[in-house]
Each structure stands twice: as structure tokens, then as C-alpha cells.
Amino acid sequence: MGKQILILGAGFGGLTVAHTLRRGLSSDHKITLVDRQPLFFMGLTKFWVLNGTRQVGDGPGNRTLLAKKGIDFIEGEVRSIDAGGKEVVVGKRKLSFDYLIVALGADYSPGSTPGFLKYAKNLYTESGCAEIRDQLRTVKSGTVTILVCGLPFKCPPAPYESSMIIDGILRKKGVRENVRLQVVTPEPHPLTLLGPEAGRMVMRLLEERGIDYYPSETVREVRSKSILTVGGKEIAHNFLFGVPTHVAPAVVRGLTDQTGWIPVNSKTLATSSPQVYAIGDCAGPRTPKGQLLPRAGILAEEQGKVVAANLIREIKSVPEREEFQGNGVCFMEVGDGKAAPVRANFYAEPNPTWEAIPPSAEGLREKQRFLEERMRTWFS
């Protein structure tokens, strides 16, 4: 008898699970993918809105087309998850399952930082980037500040990428020498989990561009012209672009622990509930040193491959199992049409390992190919 496999969330992780399962299982096994909206936009393209190389809404993937691949897609809001009772409520529908994969990502909580909604623009949404793009067109002088409100946040290089992209925009406008550009973050250094040398690599890129850096600064309150930190420091701004605090979606909080994320086996992504898995930004796998794994689409994708492969083997009564190895890659943009590929193994011992290729136009083309290959695989 076929199994009912339910996947909540159709981002990097959910899409990867669904496609891998469909390729590996016969049609009598039903694969259902749930998301609140039918269109998919890859988050790594949002900063392209800043410099006008992409417009809001360009190039979406259509999740409703997944039916042609034998994947049922349901558009709706997940209202409740009963892991023990093997039932999920989506809108007004009750869905039962044999296996459940929770891939609902992380939500933004800009209201968690007093003053953010009034004085900052959200750097992590397409609409926010469009507002920032329009505001940058008016900037002639003053202080532009990138603010990270809390840890962890998606895509660890992103705040630094945005500052370097903005640096390039201001230089092209011919006003950079009149503008102070700075990054304020609670991190002790960029790419914290990869160690101090990785941080120094990014800080050198900032220094080369004259971008000021304020590490280990936790925001208490955003004011009209300044940021007040927990330590009592007041950091000035005229234009504030922020990375809001990230939280797990409210519907999964019955599965979360004291960290606020869903605890899982770091190699198999299994939760404490039988036949229930969590992957991607809502999950809390840990490195061998006990640190929470960074949030990144490529890591969600690799986790999805492992979960899907193991479900296929379980359903087919194959004893061997795969394990998530903690490998990932990002393409850190530095402005001027260049990007630096950074490959890392977060599960390496005794410390995570990484390798960075110097910024180049080819690095940006590799990022574009990365996007195109996945959109073609998932939606063509």
C-alpha cells in the first residue's frame, strides 16, 4: 500500500525533497507539497533589486505546475501540526500522513526590535529592497547603515554583500565620498562559525571599500537618527537598512526547544516524533561543537536530499542510510559584477573548514548558473 508523504514548505528544502522522492518512488506513493503561495522566488536574487539588475516579481517558479511531475501542490496556510496524531490542518483541510517533512523556513519579526518598523527598511524582502533601491537614488550624503538585529539569520554573508553592493551603487552615482557606509551586527566577526580567518577575509573586503564595521553590538532600540545598543552606545544613521530578527513560524513552536528552533538529529534530520523530519531554516541541527548550523538554502537542499534518500530506502526496505555531511557553498557578491564563491564543511572536525575563491565576474556567473539550474530542475 502506498505511503502518504506530506511536505510543509516549498522552498529549497521542500522542493528538493519532493522531486527526489518522486524520482525514487512509484506513483502509488502520494507526495503532497504545501505552501502559502503558488509562486517561488529565490532569496539569493533579492539584492539584485538594489542595483536594478532584477525587478520585483521577475522570474518566479510556479508551484502549481508541480502536478505535471506527479507532485500534489496545495496552496494554503498551515494552521496546526499534530505530529503524534499524524495530522496537519491546512486552511480548513485536514491532511493525514505517514511521513512528514517540516520545511517551513524562518519568519521575520521586525517588531521585536523597538523602532525598526518606523525607522528601518527591511533588507530581507523583495519589497524592502525595492524601497531601499528607490531611497538610494536620493542619497547624496549622510550615513547609510546596515543593521543586523539578531542571531541567527539567513545567509550569513548577506549583510556584508548588501553593503558592498550599495558601495558600488553609490560609487556609480558619484556620491560615495560624501556618504559614510557602515555595518552594525551582534556577530563577533563575519562568518562566525567558520572562524576568525574567514571573518578577516570579509573584513578586508569591507576595509578596501571604506565600509566601517561595528561587531558585537546588540541593538536595543532604533531611533530616528541613531541606533541605541545594549551596551549604551549610540550609533548614528541617516538611512537604515536592517536584517530583522528571525523566528520559527508560530505553527511549529510545539516542536521547538529552548533555542526557538526544531531540534533534530544533525545527521538524519529526524525529530523526536517518529516519521517526522525538519529541514532548512526552521530546524536546529548542530555542528560537532554544538553550535547551530547556519541558515542557507544550499544547506536546506542538501538536508532535503538526505531525508528523501533515506525515506526511499526505508519504504523499499533497504537497510543502508545516508547522512548529512554539513557541506555548503555561497556566492558572496562584492559589487562591480563580481562574486566570491565560498565552500565550507561545517561538520568537519576539530573545526569547520572553508575555501574561498577571489571575487570575479566568473564567480557571479557561477551564482547565476546555480540559480538557473535549480529553477529549471524544479519548474521546467
Description:
With 380 residues, the protein is an alpha/beta fold. It has two domains: 171 residues, FAD/NAD(P)-binding domain; 125 residues, FAD/NAD(P)-binding domain (3-Layer(bba) Sandwich), CATH 3.50.50. Helix content is 25%, strand content 26%. The protein is built from seven helices and 23 strands. The strands form seven sheets. The protein has a five-stranded parallel sheet with strand order 5-2-1-9-20, with helices on one face. A five-stranded parallel sheet has the order 11-18-12-13-14. A hairpin with a 2-residue loop joins strand 7 and strand 8. The longest helix has 19 residues. The chain is globular. The mean pLDDT is 97.
Largest sheet: 5 strands, parallel
What percentage of residues falls in helices of 4 or more residues? 25-40%
- The CATH superfamily of the largest domain is FAD/NAD(P)-binding domain
Give the helix tally. 7
User: What is the number of beta strands?
Assistant: 23
Oligomeric organization of the protein chains: single chain
Low-confidence spans: none
Give the class-level CATH name of the largest domain: Alpha Beta
Q: What is the residue-mean pLDDT, rounded to a whole number?
A: 97
Distance between the termini: 30 Å
- List SSEs in N-to-C order: EHEEEEEEEEEHEHEHEHEEEEEEEHEEEH
Per the CATH scheme, the topology name of the largest domain is FAD/NAD(P)-binding domain
CATH architect. name of the largest domain:
3-Layer(bba) Sandwich
Domain count: 2
Class by SSE composition = alpha/beta
Shape: globular
